[in-house]
Amino acid sequence: MTASELDDGRRYRGAAPGQRQQERRTRLIDAATDAFGIDGYRNTTVTTICAAAGVGKRYFYESFTDSEDLLLEVYRETAARMIEAIHTGLREAEAVDAQVRVGLTAYFQLIVDDPRVPRIAFFEILGVSPAVDRAYHDVLDALVDICLALITPHVDLETHPAVSVRTVLFGLVGAIVIIAQKWVLDAYRQPMADVVDSACLVVNAVLARIGPDGDRR
């Protein structure tokens, strides 16, 4: 019996059609996360993903229009994991400097614990299409929103309006992403504690300048 026949019958017997479709979709996303995160998006075919997921190829198109559509979903789920790691870290501390450290530690810990995450989020997502580029920038926006919520209570908005602060935070998020990319490209040679210290230095330098006690020149 083939995998596609199992999809139609015994494996999901008793489940509603919508539930079966969702289960197939989840298996395709899981298989694609492995494939894109290990072999790369451009080295992976729909046929390969379907085989790994144990899903007949015709079922692929009930959930995704093409491999790029699947890449977008994989990227969104990967980015959500990164954002959740940061949020989890932020909930573990109260003082802003401690929040910065625990949030960044959680971010870099996920990157080192699951190498699929940085490959998908930093490399495979780049240069695919305008639609994928927009998704990448949407995630940057979400990261800036996290930073803005974190530091707004500590920013002198009379001197630094919110629109100006947001622009600064785009540069800050870009700096953190570049630090993470370089760490991955260097095969994690630098100890994670040093990477976190470096990222914290960048963040704290910005906070020191735009906070209420910062230099207003």
Task: Please characterize this protein's 3D structure.
This protein has helices at residues 3-8, 17-38, 46-53, 57-63, 67-90, 96-113, 116-124, 130-151, 162-185, 192-210. It is mainly α and 217 residues long. α2 crosses α7 (116-124). The chain is elongated. 29% of the residues are buried.
Largest sheet data: none
Unreliable spans: 1-12
Number of strands: 0
SSE pattern, N- to C-terminal? HHHHHHHHHH
Query: Distance between the terminal alpha carbons, to the nearest Å?
Result: 74 Å
Could you provide a short overview of the structure?
The chain has helices at residues 3-8, 17-38, 46-53, 57-63, 67-90, 96-113, 116-124, 130-151, 162-185, 192-210.
Descriptive keywords:
217 residues, single chain, elongated, mainly alpha, 10 helices, 73% helix
Question: How is this fold's topology laid out?
Answer:
Blueprint: H1 3-8, H2 17-38, H3 46-53, H4 57-63, H5 67-90, H6 96-113, H7 116-124, H8 130-151, H9 162-185, H10 192-210
Helix pairs in contact: 2-3, 2-4, 2-5, 2-7, 5-6, 5-8, 6-10, 8-9, 9-10
